[in-house]
Amino acid sequence: MVLLEPVVEVTVTVPEDAAGGVLGDLAARRGRISGSTARGGTVVISATVPLAEVFGYATRLRSRTQGRGTFTSRPAGYAPAP
Prior knowledge:
The chain is built from 3 helices and 4 strands. It is of the alpha+beta class. The model has no long low-confidence stretch (mean pLDDT 94).
């Protein structure tokens, strides 16, 4: 039997100078980065992150980007829990 946890697909939009810190933060939250694209001074990052790790992320993102970062999330299914 495998224990599953809900995961969400997260899209994060941040200024280019903050992209490295945000990528590191997503990795620390057990996120799997699926891609990133640069658009006119901003970077859009797509990742799949366990739902439990997303709670409180808005506050952390805003502090890392001086209030210039935004994100959206939507349910993406379930994945095996560690």
